[in-house]
Amino acid sequence: MEQVKLTAALIIAVLLQWTLRNIAEPLAYIDFPLIIVVYAALQRNSLRAILFGTFSGLAVDALSGGLLGANGFSKTLVAYIVSEIARRVYMDNLLLRIPVIAGACFLDDAVYYGLHRLLGQQPSGEFLIVASYTLIGTTVAGTILIVVLDSLMRERLASRKREMFPSRRQTRRRNPIRLGK
Amino acid sequence: MVERSQKEVWRMTPWLVIILLLGNFIMMAFDSREITTGQRVIRVWTQSIADFVQSPVTSITSGVSGYFTSIANLRSAQDENSQLRKEIEELRLDVESAKGLTEENQRLKALLDFKEQSKLDVLPARIIGRDPSIWFDSSIISRGSFDGVKLNMPVVANGALVGRITAVSPLTAQVDLITRDKSGLGAVIGEIGTSTALGVISGTSKRDLLEMKYVAGSTDVQVGQSVFTTGQDGIYPPGIKVGEIVQVISGSATTPHQIFIQPAAKLGSMQEVGVLLYEPPQRVPFDKQLNPPTKEKK
Roughly how many angstroms between the first and final C-alpha of chain A, as a whole number? Predict the structure, then answer.
């Protein structure tokens, strides 16, 4: 069920990325597929995360004037790195996830821009300006979306917490007065 | 059992990452070549799928915004109406005089034995999507190969050049703007035939700026002059307005001017464009133009 929900979220994210820029230009600074990819990577399922990264990246590239595969490359790399970090560090706290989204966004932009420059293409806009706006937009939207996704996946989250922090079997307290008897 | 399978997944993941990254890189390397004739199948398929989402969303949002705009505009409708009536009358007079001029022009052309090479048909189209990546500025329009749109056809808005078609699906097409760094077109400052200030316009990757190169430093160039296409690039027809000069870094007798142009079309906010159903005349490759050496019989 969780798999279906996340896949549906990814499809919706790609559709939003395709359409929202035509409605309002500033919404293009939010990288919706990246948020879902990072969320999937934080679930410690690296395989799913990198596949999400590749497919969502290619879906965005296919309608973009940029190189086909550049987003696929950057998002796959980001998904792998985030899932490796999530495997080693416990990151179920929202406050810890915010810098992860920001870092993933900056890395994604840097790799995307670098690949284009490497292959002789010049993306429009200054790197630092566009990357900064994208960082702000994606981090803010990502934080909200992760809270929403967490509430949707609450069942799984609860079971995972139970797995990681099993409750101690409580020993029955003996009544000292009775013992004294 | 579960632990082992998890370990297997972790062991397999780096290899999968390498394969996927390599696949993406190969695609990029393949795509980064200059595309002039072919187009990528994956782009065509995705465009066709995206059309089912983009077209309804655009229709709904434009309908909603149009409704509110019409309410806001209601106040000034009366004044506007009378103003428009007046303008219609003026335009009628203009059309009548233009008809006379056209007839005169045709008669003169016939006298000089000129034939019109081509009349450009304009196919109106709506912009249904913009580039999903903030780093690029291509647009998706609501016309495709079913409407007769083909690769490299020029696109205009308000009579000024916007770009060219770079991918066509049955229902939609992708337009690359002239501001893109890889775009280029032959241009002339002023009117063709009278001006000698010929050059090449290329994109600067900035959204409202083009650069014109190779204009001789000895040519007189002023800020505010209009720039038009020459048709020598083999893509755009001659005589389409590109923009106006906003900055000139003067050259000398040996170095060309560096000219910056603001596009005449509002590339950032256009909603409707026209596709020119124009196919440039076929060019014979240079090596085939040369006559093969003839062997003289002794």
Answer: 57
